[in-house]
Give the backbone structure.
Amino acid sequence: MIPLRRTMKTVLLRRLFRVALLFSVAVGPVAAAPGVAPRQSIVPGAIWPDDRGHHIQAHGGGILKLGDTYYWFGEDRGGEVTSKKPLERKVACYASKDLMNWELRNQVIRTGPPEPEIGSPFVFERPKVYHNAKTGKFVMYVHLDDKSYRLARVAVYVSDTVDGDYTFVRSFRPLGLESRDIGQFVDDDGSAYLIFESRPSKGFYIAKLSDDYLDVVEQTCFIKSPLEGGALVKYDGLYYMIGSWMTGWKPNNNQYATATSLAGPWSAFKDIAPKEKKTYGSQSTLMLKVVGSKKTSVIFMGDIWRPGNHQDGRYLWMPIEIGNGRLWLPEPREWTIDVATGETSFIERR
């Protein structure tokens, strides 16, 4: 496929943005903006400043770890006008070594509709990035749709570097099926999977990616439950899957199920938090496993959506209580993590 042609103005703006970032790398690590103190904790639901002091724009996102650095990709909703959708969609990439302090690396995607039939405004959601060790490429999947959510596709983008500009490859329906909310998972053996919700099937799929990660080639499992926002983790030899009910932007009581094999069978779904709390106003997007020298912790990553003002959307990150087939999301409160040891602790303020 031929990548989307950009206007000269867009190309020049992107080059200026990249030059600024490259200059900051050349002169050394980027420090926080004046007056922005390094963070020592994570506060669920609060404004989360990046190194510039701006609220992080990484909604519906995913995490990729390379060496000792975590990369957080997500929808960059900055600059949106209330009740209006811009013609351009953006994906931001942030980097951190401690999961608390994040540096903006690049807007790795700034695009209009990548294919003419999509039209504008259009839907560009839940970016998830994989690193293919065989090809060396970084492969991003996103949910791509028209404004009426009728196309129900995934779009694939690639880059030679983790925080470089990603290039459009193609869009398609995985396994020929409608696909909306997506999630990602890489198993212990390095096999990569896409999780996608398919409305006509009244459930969601776990599907294996091709060796180059550019295609979805095999159905691993179909879970017949009308859930979206799929997040998957393997802990102590057991697979745990989280999903949320389909209530639009409104929060609901997210659910979890377990299985000894990705192919199933999967257990019945149960609440991850008190039902009346509606997952504390959030929706699942990823479960991040942090393997340390003393402990392996699993972090629930959720979005607190604000449909009237998406750029003010917040994040609910919390360590999960997990093990022996049980998964529980504690009530949100300030906490901290030591990524070297994997240990987490709560902070009590007086």
About this structure: The chain has one domain: 38-346. The chain is about 5% helix and 45% strand. The two ends are 58 Å apart (CA to CA). The chain has a mean pLDDT of 90.
